[in-house]
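pls design
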């Protein structure tokens, strides 16, 4: 009798496991979720505009990463990094020069010209100033 009882109990437990595995887990109501997607836009930090302040170290890091992308041949990504560098330090002539070169490679001639002009404004006596002026002349 105990064998029949044990076998029945074992079958009941196995059946309960199968039924529980087939039923989906309950989904919590949407009101209880605390995802970033549920937060109002003003409280969602991922959607907040990035605030820039003078940070020459961050600017230099962005230029270094941009140069890495130039070596890989990804001029679009490089231009993004060089543009970030100019936002962290508007007075970084190297960032403006590299941005102009990357924009020129991307075919964005107006933006390249503006970047080159800013570079010459910051470094009018640079060794390559004559070459940059020639480039600006070709871009017009």
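designed seq:
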């Amino acid at each position: 009798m105990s064998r029949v009882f044990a076998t029945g109990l074992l079958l009941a437990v196995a059946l309960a496991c199968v039924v529980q595995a087939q039923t989906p887990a309950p989904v919590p109501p949407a009101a209880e979720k605390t995802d970033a997607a549920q937060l109002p836009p003003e409280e969602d930090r991922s959607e907040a505009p990035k605030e820039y302040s003078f940070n020459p170290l961050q600017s230099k890091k962005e230029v270094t990463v941009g140069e890495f992308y130039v070596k890989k041949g990804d001029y679009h990504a490089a231009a993004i990094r060089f543009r970030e560098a100019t936002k962290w330090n508007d007075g970084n002539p190297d960032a403006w020069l590299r941005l102009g070169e990357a924009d020129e490679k991307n075919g964005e001639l107006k933006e390249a010209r503006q970047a080159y002009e800013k570079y010459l404004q910051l470094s009018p006596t640079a060794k390559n100033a004559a070459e940059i002026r020639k480039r600006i002349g070709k871009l017009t």
